[in-house]
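Form P-L/3: holo structure prediction, ligand nicotinamide-adenine-dinucleotide.
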Amino acid sequence: MAWDAEPAAASPRVCCQLQEDEAAAVHRTARLRGLCLGQLGNMRPIQENGELRIESRLDKIIEPLREKIRDLEKSFIQKYSPVKFLSEKDCKRILVTGGMGFVGSYLMDKLMMDGHKVTVVDNFFMGRKRNMEHWIGHENFELINHDMLEQLSIEVDQIYHLASPASPPSYMYNPFKTLKTNTVGTLNMLGLAK
Ligand SMILES: NC(=O)c1ccc[n+]([C@@H]2O[C@H](COP(=O)([O-])OP(=O)(O)OC[C@H]3O[C@@H](n4cnc5c(N)ncnc54)[C@H](O)[C@@H]3O)[C@@H](O)[C@H]2O)c1
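OUTPUT (holo model):
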């Protein structure tokens, strides 16, 4: 039955057919709606189950990561060598230049364990980080990345000046820099000690 047919011109049989078609259409729509509503009603528990499943999956992924973070945090808690307690009168502020090097790092260890406040100045040219990393974060320890050719303003009680490219490969790498470090660097430290 065409939708644009004129109802007034339709015969009683046609009208009846039209009513049947309308009823069928309404019935179909209602069935479809009912189906959809039914489906939505059934979907809720499925969705809730899905969310629960996703949450439990996420927990499974996140838990090992949490454990890793806990392990990392534990490994970052530094255990320092025992340090003597000195009264304010006896505790000195000590500057060690070249403190990341061979001689400087042993001296720095000794001064730290004796309870002094130690400032290490080094330009990281030859020094090794592992020579002093066991003191990083200690309240008595400070590391300054500085080249001895530049002036340094710092308040200290004692100075140990060991910054020098001492080994043959280092001083031959740049002989002029070596000469300058040993002369200008030493003059700068003498100026600070004045
Ligand atoms: N190693 C020995 O057996 C020995 C013996 C006698 C004297 N010394 C003297 O002791 C001093 C240190 O010797 P070392 O064996 O510890 O040397 P090293 O090379 O191990 O340490 C020297 C440190 O000085 C730093 N440095 C170099 N130039 C610098 C600059 N311009 N500014 C800041 N830091 C700088 C380096 O990065 C390094 O950490 C040197 O003057 C050396 O002649 C060493």
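COMMENT: The domain at 93-193 is CATH 3.40.50.720 (Rossmann fold).
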